Amino acid sequence: GGATSPETRKYQRVQLRYGLELPPGISADTLTPLTGESLAKAKLTTDQVLAPLPRPDFLDAVARPDGLNEDVEPPLAAQKAYVAGRIAWRVGDMAEAKQQLEAALRLAPNEPRLLRLLGEIYTRSGNRIKGAQYFRRAVDLAPEDARSLFILGRFAVEKGDHDEAAVLFHDILIREQSPSALAELSRHFLGNTLRNMGHDGASAEQFEQYIAVANGPISSSIYAREQALLRRQIGVTRQLLGDLYMRLDRPADAIGVYREALEAGVPDAVKLDKRRVYAALRLRDDLLAQRLVIEQVQRRQGDAQALAMVRYIVNQGVPSARVAEAL
After folding, report:
1. Cβ contacts of residue 264 below 8 Å, gap of 6+?
2. Angle at the Cα of 81 (from 77 to 82), degrees rounded to 5?
3. Can you state the angle between helices 234-247 and 251-264, rounded to 10 degrees?
4. Contact at 8 Å (CB) between 54 and 86?
């Protein structure tokens, strides 16, 4: 990643170039260095961002003795209704599942496993609001219930409540200290949430940490499929991290991450090539910019986009005679 890549060391003393045009087809808000208030906001650390945010009441509940205490068995009738409810849920009979589980909950009102399952059933049936109520009650009774927190975090993302989403995903990371699929996914979600809030530096912190752990074995948990899917998009995550570095005016970090993104694979290699050329120009490495553009022309047999990049680097001050000679 950024801070330790060969490029970071190579360019550490370079005086950056400013005032460059962006490559054709790249929007200004993707790579332009931030200034003023936007830059101050972007430089905050994750802890500085989260400190003033309100915490939902259910996050700070103290586990109750009748919560997830394995020694306290729910009444037998509640256990039978719970089993019947799970069976109905597995065969897709949602109405029967709700009826059995709600009957079990009346007999054992402080059983987090019941609350979580009801939350999942109502959510899958399309009633997100009622589902969220059950998940909150589950966390209220069992503060260590990271699974319910993760679902609540995703609900917060979907309704655009970035503050709550950031707090919830960060809390999961505090609770899930050892590596797990849930922690890995939460780290990625937190990075995206902070980016949507305009906290590029804090977002970069999270994506750096995500990339550092997203190469171990896939877990055997219910999150394994999503974990594997996200890992297959590691090139996109690296490109995103490179864009954050560019906005934070750290092109030496960005160019190394962009190279890693290309090696991992991205859906739009043309746009990634343009980012690499722009980063090279900002670092005053005109030879690298020229080499990258010539490689594009040769690889894409002189298509219009590649030739537009030749005009672009010449317009940014790379001598046209040198480019022509190289071609």
Report:
1. 234, 235, 238
2. 115
3. 170
4. no
d(Cα 135, Cα 58) in Å, to the nearest integer? 10
- DSSP code at position 178: S
* Residue 283 to residue 12: CA distance in whole angstroms: 10
Instruction: State phi, psi for 307 to the nearest 5 degrees.
Output: -70, -30
What is the DSSP code (8-state) at residue 71?
A: T
Q: What is the 3-state secondary structure (H, E, C) of 9-68?
A: HHCCCCCCCCCCCCCCCCCHHHHCCCCHHHHHHHCCCHHHHHCCCCCCHHHHCCCCCCCC
With residue 226 as reference, give the H or E element that holds it.
Answer: helix 224-231
Residue appearing with tokens 């005032």: 19
Q: Residue 217 carries which side chain, given as an amino acid letter?
A: P
Q: Which two tokens stand for residue 17?
A: 């170039």
Q: Judge whether residue 64 has pLDDT over 70.
A: no
Chain segment 146-197, per-residue pLDDT in tens: 888 888 898 899 889 999 999 999 999 998 878 889 999 999 999 999 999 9
Write down the mean pLDDT value for the chain: 87
pTM of the predicted model as reported, rounded to 2 decimal places: 0.82
CA distance 326 to 151: 55
Q: What integer pLDDT is reported at residue 70 of this predicted model?
A: 46
Assigned token pair, 84:
């019947």
Q: Using one digit for the tens of pLDDT, what is the confidence trace for 124-154?
A: 888 878 878 877 887 777 777 888 888 889 8
Separation CA 302–CA 99 (nearest Å): 66
- Distance spanning both ends of the chain, measured CA to CA: 32
